[in-house]
Amino acid sequence: MKPDDSNAAPKPAAAHSSSEAAQVLMHLQNLEEQLAVVREGLAHSHRLVTLGTISSVIAHEFNNILTPMISYSQMALANPDDTEFMKKALGRTLDSSKRAAEIISSLLNFAREEDQASHIANIKDAIDGALACLAREPKKDGIHLEVDVDAELYAAISPVHLQQVLLNLILNARKVLLQSGGTITIRTSSEDDRVRLAITDTGPGVPEDIRETLFDPFVTRSTTTSDEAPKGTGLGLHICRQLIEEAGGTITFTLGQGAEKAQTVLGSEFTINIRAASPLIAEEHSTPTAAGYKQAS
User: Fold this and answer.
1) Residue 96 belongs to some domain of the structure
2) I want to staple 249 with a disulfide (CB 3.0 to 4.6 A). Which of 58, 60, 259, 274 is the partner?
């Protein structure tokens, strides 16, 4: 005779709910990990896109470097008995070769995959690395560059990510100044445990209709520029904000110093505010420089 199960205690509903909650939580954690991978992939892809947008500038600058190298080499070969001229030609060729090597090193470092172990950046090194990626000196385009930076300031952010943000902001400023010329100013300050980094230009400013949505995806400034500065994807500032916020910082936009003049807005200022880091901690991490990356210990 089968036992009577009518009085058997039912399975606790709480235990079943707890099991389902654990599965949902695990699923959410997996999704967060996948999202982090996608975000880093997007950031890396954007670095490559950024290099693509300045490829014509880089090619033009390399032509300017290679042309005198070839000329000096040809003249040196044509005058083998002129020792003094030979030394001068070799010296000029060596200087140009070093300049080309610095540009290539900076571009390779910028395009490389992110070092997950490095989360401390020397701000001056990041700025130098970003400027080196430009290849072409701003003054050749009638743009004056002012850099007022404390060499001992460190920020709690990936060096590659900070350099990516800086290069994007500098390229944006350069693009709006290509036709009229002007000044790009980069300066830093610190207060308590925060570092403030401001990039200012004296261009026409950001159109009023997109100021509120400037950091949203696919928002672009309609700026007429030369062929060297094609229209962007509209993702640059959005990715910049994402990288800064992931490091616990903020990036904001304000009108430049000429904004108060009658109906004429002159300039834009982008300000990064981020947590400061100790130089002692920074020594344990790799940091980017214009000529390359120091190896992590």
Assistant:
1) no
2) 274
Assign residue 292 a region: left if phi > 0, alpha if psi is -120 to 50, beta otherwise? left
> How many domains are there within the chain?
1
pLDDT score of 35: 62
Q: How confident is the model at residue 223 (pLDDT cuts 50, 70, 90)?
A: very low
**What's the CATH code of the domain at 107?**
3.30.565.10
Name 238's Cβ contacts closer than 8 Å, sequence gap at least 6. 215, 216, 217, 219
Q: Which residues pair with 196 in a beta bridge?
A: 189, 273
Residue 95 in any domain: the answer is no
- Angle at 57 (CA atoms; ends 227, 158), nearest 5 degrees: 115
Q: Does residue 260 contact residue 273 with C-beta atoms inside 8 Å?
A: no
Over residues 106-117, the mean pLDDT reads: 66
**Which residue has 């996608």 as its token pair?**
38
Q: What is the pLDDT of residue 71?
A: 86
CB atoms within 10 A of CB 92: 16
Q: Is the pTM of this model over 0.70?
A: no
Q: Is residue 22 situated within a structural domain?
A: no
d(CA 272, CA 4): 73
Residue 79 and residue 102 in contact, taking contact as beta carbons nearer than 8 Å:
no
For residue 192, tell me if it sits in a domain.
Answer: yes
The residue range of the domain holding 161 is 37-59+103-293
Residues 6+ apart with CB under 8 A from 70: none
